[in-house]
Design a protein that fits this description.
Length: 431
């Protein structure tokens, strides 16, 4: 039986591990984090700390919610990811959209994988009679402006959802799909999951991957395998590649999020899942979003209560120009082009909000990104093998790092579809 190591349990790793286990591989899954526990305390209990500014450091998120990791990539951009079983999918809003920017150009058609995943995950829109009035008003305002808003396809079971609005800090009722379900499927097929096992590097001998090193110093451990699948996410994968003496391209993209905050007394936007509808422009979307991060982190947001705050998010396909280093540091700026696109989108968001009766003061939130990819971008000539030719035999990448272009759209389906295609290629080539 062929032995495969899969590194990471997010949208990519979980889909790859599930498929390889189904195809008869002996799978060992190595996950840096532990089991994730959703945040269940009431937001109002944290309000006094917010008022005196004690929540204004993003690192406190990780302290309160272990597994919620942040990396500051420049003075004004924070990147978020999940370091736990389920990766970043445990922090997701449950939006499930086919994001395909840049795929046609390289001749990659993932329709079959998208179809299959949508069937497995069960996707539907959130009932409109449970949208908050302010959200419905903004939907109509966007319609009136010709922006053609659509209800967002979601992986949220509305019968289980309690409308707590806290998807991004974990779904306590288990209404929202995350990739732990694929991990469970893999384990049920015989895969072994080892948590708290941060992979440091891949061992390459005679131009072939032979295994990985987990941990450092005297506690480090070698795991050997026939195949190594890197799915440690947009930061983890290039970090491990560089630590293993391999290149990764300095083309990190993050889909920059910027929320415009306004005010509407008693709007209670938190009492619905985030992002129940969206409008789609060529390189960004607008979507209703209370933006808990800005509520807690951002000084300009401090004078409005969570009950009265209304947010409309811009999610922009940014320029692919960030760098991840072997020690996990990330450098990624908001470029002049990104800023000018954000300005235009924010202007549109303000018009939609005003048209819905939302009033000022309007304030921008924290620039952040959580769709991390692009450092192992597939090119036209790579699609046949589903990996760039510089990656040694026996080593594969199966996460969003493969996506050549930023999306400005939800990226879980894209990541899992890429990983599924890679896992099938592995089974064809290595078995
Ligand atoms: C707050 C937030 C909300 C989001 N909402 C949505 C949404 O609603 N819809 C959507 O489509 N997308 C959403 N996304 C984006 C989506 O979650 C990611 O694009 C997707 O999960 C990427 O998959 P991945 O496998 O590349 O990385 P991840 O899902 O991040 O998985 C990487 C995995 O590798 C592990 N890892 C990292 N380093 C190591 C190491 N050295 N050794 C071992 N393991 C390691 C991590 O713990 C993790 O399990 C959201 C992201 C965030 C941050």
């Amino acid at each position: 039986m062929m032995k495969a190591i899969v590194i990471g349990t997010g949208a990519g790793g979980a889909a790859a591990a599930r498929e390889l286990a189904n195809k008869g591989f002996e799978v060992l899954i190595l996950e840096a984090g532990g089991e994730f526990k959703p945040f269940t305390r009431r937001i109002s209990l944290v309000e006094p700390l917010r008022k005196i500014g004690l929540t204004r450091n993003e690192k406190n998120f990780s302290r309160v919610i272990p597994g919620y990791d942040s990396v500051r990539s420049s003075k004004d951009l924070i990147l978020f990811r999940g370091i736990a079983t389920g990766g970043s999918t445990i922090l997701a809003c449950g939006n499930m959209v086919r994001a395909e920017h840049g795929l046609k150009e390289i001749g990659l058609d993932l329709t079959k994988e998208f179809d299959e995943l949508e069937e497995l995950i069960k996707i539907s829109t959130f009932p409109q009679d449970r949208w908050r009035p302010v959200t419905r008003n903004m939907f109509e305002s966007a319609q009136e402006r010709g922006l053609e808003p659509q209800p967002t396809p979601k992986s949220v079971d509305s019968l289980k959802c309690i409308s707590c609005g806290l998807c991004e800090v974990g779904c306590s009722p288990g209404a929202r799909w995350d990739s732990t379900r694929f991990v469970d499927d893999a384990v049920n097929k015989g895969a072994v999951l080892k948590t708290r096992s941060p992979v440091k590097k891949v061992i390459i001998e005679k131009e072939r991957a032979r295994g990985v090193i987990v941990g450092s110093g005297s506690a480090s451990k070698l795991y050997e395998a026939d195949v190594v699948v890197l799915a440690a996410g947009g930061i983890g994968t290039p970090q491990i590649l560089k630590a293993s003496g391999l290149p990764a391209e300095d083309r990190l993209w993050v889909d920059i999020v910027l929320t415009l905050g306004g005010v509407s007394k008693g709007a209670n936007q938190l009492k619905e899942p985030p992002m129940v509808w969206y409008t789609k422009e060529e390189d960004y979307i607008l979507s209703p979003y209370i933006d808990i991060l800005s509520h807690f982190l951002h000084e300009p947001w401090k004078n409005v209560s969570i009950q009265d705050r209304v947010g409309l998010m811009v999610k922009l396909a940014d320029e692919e120009q960030g760098t991840v280093y072997a020690d996990g540091r990330v450098e990624k700026e908001i470029t002049l082009h990104d800023r000018s696109r954000l300005d235009e989108a924010i202007k549109q968001a303000k018009q939609v909000m005003e048209g819905a009766g939302v009033s000022g003061p309007f304030v921008e939130g924290v620039h952040n990104g959580g769709h991390l990819g692009g450092t192992v971008p597939l090119k036209k000539e790579d699609v046949k093998d589903m990996k760039p030719s510089w990656i040694p035999d026996g080593l594969w990448v199966a996460d969003l790092s493969l996506a050549p272009r930023s999306q400005g759209l939800p990226t879980i389906l894209l990541t899992s579809a890429l990983a599924l295609r890679v896992a099938r290629k592995i089974s064809e080539v290595e078995n």
